[in-house]
Amino acid sequence: MQTLQDPSSLSLFDTDHFFPNFASDHSWEPGWLADHRTESWEKFRKYKSSTSKDENWRFSPKHLFSLDKILQLSAQKDLVQLDALESKEALFQNLDKMILDFPDDLSRITDHDGPNLGAAQNYYLTSSLADNGFFLGTQKGAEIPEPFIVEHKTPKDEGITFERNVINLAPFSSATVFEFINSDESTSQGNASSTLNITLGEGAKLVRVLVQNVNNNTTLHQFENFTLSKDSSLRNVTIHLGSSQCRSETKGDMINRGAFFENFSLFLGSGKQLFDQRTRQVHSASDCTSNLLAKNAINDQSKSIFSGLIKVEEDASNTNAYQTNRNLLLSNEAEADSLPGLEILANEVKCSHGATTSKIEEQELFYLLSRGIPHRSAEKLISLGFLEEVVEKVNNQDLIEKIRALIESKFD
C-alpha cells in the first residue's frame, strides 16, 4: 500500500516517488503493459497541469470529483468477484489472471481509449493504475444463454481502487453480463474508478446490466467506451442508487453499417447525492440506429446532471437516433440540469432529442391520497411508475424484482 506522508502539501499522485514505486511493484508484468501504464501516466500528468476551462464540466462541481484528497491506493485485491460460468466458448477471468496466463488476449487494451467527455485526467489515471477488473471474450458464433455475473466492491479503507474491465464479443456471438457494485460496509469511505471497453464483432449481440448501490460516502468514476461493428447490437442498462457523487461517461461508436445501440439509465437521488452523466452516440457509418433514455428521480437536496450528444458523421446517411432525458423532482430543493444536443453532418437522417423536468402532478397525488394511501407511499408509487420504463429494459424477471425492491427501500 502506498501512503502519502504529508497530505497538507501534495496529493498522493503529485509526489515524485509515487509512480516509480508503483511501476517497481509491477515489474513482473509484460513490457507492453508497463509501457501502456507509463504512457497513460504521462497523459494524466499533462491533463493535470492544464488550466483550460472545460465546458464538459458545466453545471458540475468539479472539485467534488477531485482525487487530490486520496491518501492511499487500496490494498484489497479481491474487489472484483466473478460467478464462475463454465463455458468452452468464452474466456472469463479477473484482470490479474489475464495478465499472468492470457497476456496476448489482453494486449489489445493498448489500442483502447476512453469516452473523453470531460474527465480525461481521471480516465488516464485509472488506465495507468488499474489493479482490479475483469475480461470477457467469446469465440466466433458462440451463443451463451446464461448471464456472466460480476460483483464489484468498493474498498473498506479510505483509499481508492482502479479497475480495467474489457468485453470482447467475437463475430456472431451473443452474451449477457450482469454487474453489481456494492459496499461491504455502510460507513466505509473507499472510492472507485473504472474503465470499461466493449468491442462487438460483426453480428455480435450483448446485453449489459449494471446495478450500482454503494454507500453514500463513496465517490465513483465510470468511463465506458463501446465500439459496435456491422449489424451488431448492444443494450446497456444502468441503475444508479448509491454513492455520494458519481461521474459517468458513456460513448457508443457505431463504426460499421447496421449497428444498433440502446442506452437506458436511471438515477434515484436522495440526501445530497450528485449524479453527473455524460453521453455520446456517435454514428460513424450509415444505416445505424441508437436510442437513449435517461430517467432521474431526485429527492431532498440531491442533484442530477445530464449532458448528451448525438453526433452523425458525414458518411452516416440513413441514421436513426433518439435521445430523451426525463427528470422527476420530488422536493423543492432537488435540482436537475439537462444539456441534450445534436451534431449532424450527413443528409437523410432521423434524429430527435428532448428533455423534461417536472414535479409530481397534484392530480396524481390527490388520487392516491384520496384512497387512503399515505403521502410518502404515494410519492413512492408514482416514482416507481416513472422509473419502471427503464427497469423493464433489464428483461430478466428475477433481476427486475431485485431492482424494484432496492428502489422501494430507498423510500423507507
Q: How would you summarize the topology of this molecule?
A:
Elements: H1 18-25, H2 31-49, E1 80-82, E2 90-94, H3 95-101, H4 103-106, H5 120-129, E3 134-138, E4 148-154, E5 160-169, E6 174-183, E7 191-200, E8 205-213, E9 219-228, E10 233-240, E11 245-254, E12 260-269, E13 274-283, E14 289-298, E15 303-312, E16 320-329, E17 335-344, E18 350-359, H6 362-369, H7 375-391, H8 397-409
Parallel strand pairs: 3-5, 4-6, 5-7, 6-8, 7-9, 8-10, 9-11, 10-12, 11-13, 12-14, 13-15, 14-16, 15-17, 16-18
Antiparallel strand pairs: 1-4, 2-3
Helix pairs in contact: 2-5, 6-7, 7-8
What does this structure look like?
- The chain contains 8 helices and 18 strands.
- With 412 residues, the protein is of the alpha/beta class.
- The strands form 2 sheets. Strands 1-4-6-8-10-12-14-16-18 form a 9-stranded mixed beta sheet, with helices on one face. Strands 2-3-5-7-9-11-13-15-17 form a 9-stranded mixed beta sheet.
- α2 (31-49) packs antiparallel against α5, α6 (362-369) crosses α7 (375-391) and α7 packs antiparallel against α8 (397-409).
- The protein is globular, with a radius of gyration of 21 Å.
- It starts with 17 loop residues before the first helix and ends with a helix.
- Mean pLDDT is 93; it is low at 3-7.
